[in-house]
């Protein structure tokens, strides 16, 4: 399944469209849109380098083991209710327990004053496919 491209090509019929995209220049082509994009790409490159080092150290089967562990721990969740799943095992596996990123101190929607508590029975029925409807009563 292919997704649509995220950005429109700046060349229309081989010529830069100045009215839509402004003047072309080296700064526009090399710069990132936001500083967090460069941070995200840096984190991805560091994770890939760490993965390659571990693969070279422990062998090619280590990648498969890490992927299998990641898949198992990403599916493990608490039932719907008052306590959200923290994915502690996945954070321990990936090493993100020690990281304090911008996501950690931004507003969490679960801490909102307008959020109503989740009906655990309704949430489990929806998760198991016994019922249809919104998973949370605040979505009604």
Please report the total strand number as a whole number.
2
Described by its quaternary structure, the protein is single chain
Listing every helix as H and every strand as E from the N terminus to the C terminus, the arrangement reads EEHHHHHHH
Regions with pLDDT < 50 over 5+ consecutive residues? none
Count of discrete alpha- or pi-helical segments spanning 4 or more residues: 7
Q: Order the strands across the largest sheet as they lie in space.
A: 1-2
Largest beta-sheet details: 2 strands, antiparallel
Radius of gyration: 22 Å
Mean pLDDT rating: 76
Q: Percentage of helical residues? A: 40-55%
- Give the overall shape, derived from the CA principal axes: extended
Task: Please give the alpha-carbon distance between the first and last residues.
Answer: 31 Å
Strand content: under 5%
How would you describe this structure to a colleague?
The chain has 140 residues and is mostly helical. Helices cover 49% and strands 3% of the residues. The chain has a two-stranded antiparallel ribbon with strand order 1-2. Helix 4 (61-75) runs antiparallel to helix 5.
Main traits of this protein?
mainly alpha; 140 residues
Compact summary:
The protein is built from 7 helices and 2 strands, in the order ββααααααα. Strand 1 (11-12) and strand 2 (15-16) form a beta hairpin. With 140 residues, it is mainly alpha-helical.
Write the SSE topology.
Layout: E1 11-12, E2 15-16, H1 18-21, H2 26-30, H3 35-58, H4 61-75, H5 88-94, H6 102-105, H7 120-128
Antiparallel strand pairs: 1-2
């Amino acid at each position: 399944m292919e997704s649509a491209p995220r950005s429109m090509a700046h060349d229309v019929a081989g010529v830069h469209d100045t009215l839509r995209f402004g003047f072309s220049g080296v700064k526009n082509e090399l710069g990132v849109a936001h500083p967090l994009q460069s941070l995200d790409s840096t984190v991805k490159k560091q994770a890939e380098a760490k993965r390659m080092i571990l693969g070279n150290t422990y062998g090619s089967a280590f990648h498969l083991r890490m992927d299998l562990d990641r898949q198992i721990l990403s599916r493990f969740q608490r039932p719907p209710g008052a306590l959200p799943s923290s994915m502690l095992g996945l954070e321990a596996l990936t090493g993100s327990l020690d990281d304090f990123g911008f996501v950690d101190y931004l507003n969490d929607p679960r801490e909102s004053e307008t959020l109503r508590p989740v009906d655990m029975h309704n949430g489990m029925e929806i998760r198991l496919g016994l019922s249809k409807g919104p998973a949370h009563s605040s979505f009604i």
